[in-house]
Amino acid sequence: MRQDPFGRQAPSSPGRGRRRVGGLRIGVLLLFAAYGAYYYFSNRTEDPVTGQTVLIDRSLSADDEKALGLQAYQEILSQERPVDPSLPISQEIRGIADRLIAKVDVVEAALAAEHGMQPTRFSQTFEWEVNVIESDQANAFCLPGGKMAVYTGLVPVAQNENAMAVVMGHEIAHALLRHGAQRMAQQRLSQVGQMAGAMSGMDPQQQQMVMAAMGYGYLLPYARKHETEADEVGLMLAAAACFDPREAVPLWERMGEASGGQAPPEFSSTHPNPGTRIQNLQALMPKALEYRERFCEEAR
Question: What's the angle, vertex CA 273, arms to CA 179 and CA 285, rounded to 5?
Answer without folding.
Answer: 75
